[in-house]
Write the structure tokens for this entry.
Amino acid sequence: MVDQDFAGERISRAQWDAWQEEITAIGVTNPLTNFEANSFGQIDLERSHPGGFSQFVTGRPTLLSNLVRDPLAYSRALASGRRISSKAERLATNFGIPTLHLVGGLADFEGDGFDLQTPILMWPVSVERRGDDFELQKAGAPIVNPAFVDALEVCYGIKLNEAELLARQNESSDLIPVTVLNYLANLTAEKAKLDLKRILVIGNFTTAPTKMLRDFDRSESQLLRELSGEPKDELPAVDVSEMLLVADADSTQVRISARALAGQSFAVETLPGCGYLQTVLNTIGVLVNAGKSVLVVAPRRQTLNELADRLSATGLAGLGIRADSTWVDAVAAISRNEKAQTVDLAGARGRRLVAEQELDGYFKALDRPVESLGVSVSEILRQLSALSAMPHPPVTNARIEAKHLTDHLDRGNALAILAEAEELGEFKFGPQDTAWYQAQFDSPGEVAQAIALAKRLRDDAFPNLSAQLADFISKVNFKPA
């Protein structure tokens, strides 16, 4: 028997594999499974100064200059600190992923043919700028690298007791005590040829891809079937007359909000700058106005912050509560409700309707053909846009009076004259068309003399001759040329 909720084709194994590969590819190479030491984006504390390191181990803030005393090594560590903190801030701001960690201990699986080098333990750390230096501090208790735990189970079938491993780490003030490495060596001795090393490195590391793979469950649902299936028939029509929108929207955006209000399942594909955030704002507004709760999920925290700013600018501050700014949004919501005033909603709707009708009339007038010309203004603009988009668009300063346009609606005769002129070479211009064509000069001085003569003719002789001709023509009543 097939569950009615799962009607339709089952999700193929290839589709499941493709989804899993997408998760595995997040961040490209994961340093928690394929660790490589480098001084560009890591700070190595293994050879740090004992005085500063003992202060860091106890959890107190420690300047980088107290950990790395050698001038050359400190210069490299300082540059790495800038890159690490900048990348961590970018990932935390855009995606809400904390990445600053100290990793300790390294397990190399290559002895058994596995291309894996996984750190063993992880500590969250903070890296704060202090003038021209950085202040480092442990920001929490250690955890076992989940990628290391999964690798042991997948490669050797060994189930690691994480609590017991962490208990051995806590027995010593050393971050990577010998007891931890001995415990792992004894645990894997019969099945593996692990090469265990001692490292202490600060860098950008995240367990998010590993945890996503752990949560990956090949259990089908109606939503997953819809996402993996082929597009179906068009969505049914929706009523858009009774919606209360909080921002301006075109007809497409209105339909999107109406479909969400009607409970339809659909996806919208758009480009940045096309008003998608405005559409989300309206959709939230109509759903909340209908008494529904709304969950907004975005790949970047910046998007959620922009949405919160839009809500605030619309007068709906605190309508959405962000996970990382709960207190701020809750206070904003309380303040908004305390300052709320009664509004004439019916009057506002009436004014909006009048404005919409005026806009509709404006656009209809643009599409209405002009009786004397037989074309509409919008059609004229489309044709002009097509001309301007040509590789070599025509350019002219000519302006034609409206009466001449109506006198020559039949353009057949004009086109025939233009075609004949083009055949005769009227629109062609070459070297022979200039007055200087085939001119010969024996010296540069003759060129200067010829130019001076041409300027004198242009500025003096021709204007005088033209004035004399005009005077003569007027006297004899000739038609001016």
DSSP finds 18 helices and seven strands in the chain.
